[in-house]
Specification:
The chain has four helices and no strands. With about 70 residues, it is mainly alpha-helical. The protein has one domain.
Length: about 70
């Protein structure tokens, strides 16, 4: 079950499937059992990347303070 269409926003942000997978792994560490929060944070990260608020490199950093 998917809660949010984060993949569409990732495409709009020009994030490759490989980088989407990489960011998914980083964010999943913060929400190992909560799929809705995991997807919400992916969506918010891709929205911020799309809008130029956050870079993909910043989102991929393991420190939670750099992620949205």
């Amino acid at each position: 079950m998917h809660y949010f269409d984060y993949e569409k926003v990732a495409r709009q942000a020009h994030v490759t499937p490989e980088k989407l997978n990489e960011l998914s792994q980083v964010i999943r560490q913060d929400f190992p059992r909560d799929d809705m929060m995991f997807e919400l944070h992916l969506l918010r990260a891709f929205m911020a990347i799309r809008e130029g608020i956050l870079t993909l490199e910043e989102a991929l950093r393991p420190e939670p303070a750099t992620r949205i």
